[in-house]
Amino acid sequence: MEFSVIQGDIAAQSADVLVNAAGTSLRMGSGVAGALRRGAGGPINEEATSKGPVDLGGVAVTDAYDLDAEYVIHAAAMPHYGDGQATAESIRDATRNTLERAEELGAGSLVIPALGCGVAGFDLAEGARIICEELDRFEPDSLADVRFIAYSDEEYATLQRVADEVRGE
Question: pLDDT value at position 52?
Fold first, then answer.
């Protein structure tokens, strides 16, 4: 599947689905979750936590409230127990489950951050490679506009470099 790498605030994006880098409890704390919670207004955190906990690598869907999206998919690449660290398997599973759930929703567009690479401690380049591999191999029916989003200049440079390598560019 084709996808692009962009830079910006995920809460300011317009898409059918915005993806939250969640933990298994689905509690929306800091980082991507905090940005989406603030942008959504309304009871998004309460709705999310009412659907949890989910298994590591699992996903849950909530309304997007005031965000410019229909849905938020909360992708649990990080455990809210033990050491709280993401793994290659949890990032791969969360990415794949997100794409499959977006297809079930009939989404045409999706914005996904670097799951598991913030407070969950997974190496950004390695995590980006896992996500890019899953994006690249996914065969969508409805998804036509998939954006892998970075917040900082440094993060953007890493995601773009890894995406180019995965795509053989």
Answer: 95
